[in-house]
Design brief:
The chain is built from five helices and five strands. It has 111 residues and is an alpha+beta fold. A hairpin with a 5-residue loop joins strand 3 and strand 4. The longest helix is centred in the N-terminal third of the chain and has 14 residues. It is globular and about 45 Å long. This is DC-UbP/UBTD2 N-terminal domain-containing protein.
Length: 111
């Protein structure tokens, strides 16, 4: 592989979980899961490539070290280290809401 590449790849952003955030209303885990499923079902319809959306979903649902490997192998360009803004190699933009990446601080714990 070419070493004399762009400097951008050398400074690939390390993925990290989003900063703690609060949902507008306290929600249950079931509601969070439903929101996530709806997002992933509809996201590919807004553009971009399905395989990139699939890789982003896998990355969002994995632990950080695995997320990094998934993103790297899919050739995803991470704009924001928390994965909220990414691009594919063709320059298509992928925006992920925080709720697919981490839980809100006001998640209702059900026992």
């Amino acid at each position: 592989m070419g070493c004399a590449g762009s400097k951008e790849n050398d400074a690939a952003k390390q993925i990290r979980k989003p900063k703690p955030w609060k949902h507008s209303d306290a929600i249950t885990r079931a509601q969070l899961v439903q929101m996530r499923d709806e997002f992933w079902d509809t996201a590919p319809h807004y553009g971009g490539r399905k395989e990139i959306w699939d890789a982003l979903r896998a990355a969002a649902e994995s632990d950080i070290s695995l997320s990094q490997a998934i993103v790297d192998s899919a050739g995803i360009i991470v704009q924001a280290p928390d994965l909220t803004i990414c691009y594919d190699e063709r320059g298509a933009k992928y925006e992920l809401p925080k709720y697919v990446l981490s839980e809100p601080t006001n998640l209702i714990r059900e026992n």
